[in-house]
Specification:
The chain has 236 residues and is an alpha+beta fold. The protein has 2 domains: 80 residues, Phosphorylase Kinase, domain 1 (2-Layer Sandwich); 136 residues, 2-Layer Sandwich (D-amino Acid Aminotransferase, Chain A, domain 1). The chain is 29% helix and 35% strand. It has 6 helices and 15 strands. The strands form 4 sheets. Strands 1-2-3-7-6 form a 5-stranded antiparallel beta sheet. β13 and β14 form a beta hairpin. α1 packs parallel to α6. The longest helix has 23 residues. The chain starts with a strand and ends with a helix. The structure holds cytidine-5'-diphosphate. The site of cytidine-5'-diphosphate has 13 residues, from β9, α2, β12 and β15.
Length: 236
């Protein structure tokens, strides 16, 4: 497979065309950003760790019946994925209250959310990813009603699979963000699943093992990602 021109350059990943129109190469960079791109730093090894982390999780999700864009790892920090028509929507599920939820609603941190919460956000950094609901999505034609239902169904199914996977490794899946796209008339899970886009706490100490370490300047960011990978049995 030949790597072609760059199609998109996001905050932490770049996407390249290939000689196969339906396939892309996703390059996980070391760039780490927070606060809608206001804070950006290079973190050694992060691209490589996230590439392997994402591959492992996407494979577990496929085995659990979630259709994803992931095809295969082709280098330390690159994977081949299907070329999706991405929806401009972020799907967030929360098992424990923290982050923007607490700021927005004034609720306490660390509450168990039962049943888990589901929220839609518009993917737009300039507007700071505003929260939206089903009606915005339909009126502005960002997705169809069927796609809304599918996003909810798949995002909760991901929660069932990953909550258990992490808990078996002594880690609480606090919350996470997913993005979906269209491919041959079907909705597939796109983007990535790594500690950049979820919150992971040690089950005993509640130590943060995710990008909050970067947001909060706690240090040991990639070391924490690697510790999670090791506990999950991912070879880095
Ligand atoms: O992270 P922040 O407090 O700004 O937002 P949140 O709404 O509490 O984020 C919920 C979950 O989605 C966290 O695991 C975030 O890491 C993730 N997220 C993300 O990956 N990308 C975004 N643009 C927004 C949230």
């Amino acid at each position: 497979m030949q790597k072609g021109e760059m199609l998109a350059n996001g905050k932490a990943k770049s996407v390249y065309k290939t000689d196969e129109p339906k396939k892309l190469i996703m390059h996980f960079r070391n760039d780490t950003s927070a606060f809608d791109g206001e804070k950006i730093e290079q973190l050694d090894r992060k691209g490589m760790v996230n590439n392997k982390f994402n591959a492992f999780i996407m494979q577990r999700l496929e085995e659990g019946g979630i259709p994803t864009h992931f095809e295969k790892v082709i280098s330390e920090d690159e994977s081949v994925v299907k070329n999706l028509d991405m929806l401009p929507i972020e799907c967030v599920v929360r098992n424990i209250s923290t982050g923007s939820l607490c700021k927005r609603l004034g609720v306490a941190e660390g509450l168990d959310l039962e049943p888990p919460l589901f929220e839609f956000f518009l993917k737009n950094d300039e507007l700071h990813d505003p929260m939206i609901n089903d009606f915005h999505i339909i009126s502005f034609k960002w997705a169809t009603q069927d796609e809304i239902e599918k996003m909810k169904e798949l995002t909760f199914k991901v929660n069932d699979i990953l909550k258990k996977l992490f808990l078996d490794a002594g880690i609480i899946l606090v919350d996470y963000k997913l993005e979906f796209g269209r491919y041959d008339g079907k909705l597939l899970l796109g983007d990535e699943f790594s500690p950049d886009g979820c919150r992971l706490w040690d089950v005993n100490t509640r130590e943060k093992l995710d990008k909050d370490r970067f947001r909060q300047g706690l240090g040991g960011v990639v070391e924490a990602y690697e510790a999670v990978a090791e506990r999950l049995g991912i070879a880095i």
